Amino acid sequence: MRYLNNDKGVALVTALMLTLISLTIIMTVLYLLTQGTRLTASQKRYQNSLEAAYGGVEFFGKEILPRLITPAIDQTMTSAVLTDIQNDYPITVSLPSTASNISCLQQKLSLPFGSWTNCASANKTSSPKDSPDMTFTLPGPLGQSGFNVYAKVVDTQSGNTDTSGLELVVGGNVAAGSNAVINPGQQVPYMYTLELQGEKEVSPEERARLSVLYAY
Asked: Where are the beta strands (DSSP E) in 84-146?
């Protein structure tokens, strides 16, 4: 038996293996860089939608809801009242326009969830985009596309102002035996659970959703 002692070609094989390993490392690095860039861009788009949702909370909670609650409680909510509210803002605000939806919104703002008898199933779901109580569009930066915001009341609870016949007295002294409560603190007649969703006008998949507890 004769052993072959010929190592010709080993250098070529070694060089090819090192080249393959180097290419694998380079491709891995490029893949990680690409994924990192995509993730950064996705986070930026999400952040924009999140800011739009926060803007919706501010606008709905501070501008729209306070003007809706009183006519809802007083049973004076009409399409004319809602139209006046819509016309007071430079952006396009959409509130319920049909009699059934107006009646539903009135119940939402003045009655607990179980008493929303005038609301359809879609009005009661937790999805803010499914029959929302209000929609509006916020302009985008530097002429870019804007963001649609959907807002919806999904639950209502009575606050701490149910006095059960007691008269609330803020400060001062009350004679002994009188039917009153001294220093009751902040009065909160209603607490609302709100769902809001902000999404890019041209790319609805870029969206963010918030759940908010609003005390009136």
From this structure: 93-94, 134-138
